[in-house]
Amino acid sequence: MNVSLETLIRRIRSRGVRLQIENRAIHRFHEYGFRKKHLEILGNTNTADGDLWDGLVFGYSDWDYDYGTEFRSNILVGIIFIADGLATVTLIVKQCYIFY
């Protein structure tokens, strides 16, 4: 479903969103030092580019989850606005509600 940034923020804060660790290497995308911490926000497509909204998870020195692992979060840390007009949301996966 196409959603604006404002709608995505409301969804995160009100009911939380499902996240999946994105394997950026498959698409030859750079991980920018955040190995296995790039997320896709499932069911929420960015109206700006037609792709799933992107997320990042910070911290967690012991983060050792595999690509494709799904989580849930309702904790928005911030938003990174990118020069090309896109944005990435930063989230905390405080309690790892993992979906198998």
How would the blueprint of this fold be written?
Blueprint: E1 2-3, H1 5-14, E2 17-21, E3 38-46, E4 52-57, E5 70-73, E6 75-81, E7 87-92
Parallel strand pairs: 1-3, 4-7
Antiparallel strand pairs: 2-3, 2-5, 3-4, 6-7
Summarize the structure.
With 100 residues, the chain is mainly β. The chain has one helix spanning 5-14; strands at 2-3, 17-21, 38-46, 52-57, 70-73, 75-81, 87-92.
Primary descriptors:
mainly beta, 100 residues, 7-stranded mixed beta sheet, 1 helix, disordered C terminus, 39% strand
Task: Report what the structure shows.
This protein is mostly beta strands. 10% of the residues lie in helices and 39% in strands. It is built from one helix and seven strands. Strands 1, 2, 3, 4, 5, 6 and 7 form a seven-stranded mixed β-sheet that branches. Strand 3 (38-46) and strand 4 (52-57) form a beta hairpin. It is globular and about 30 Å long. The model is unreliable at 95-100 (pLDDT under 50).
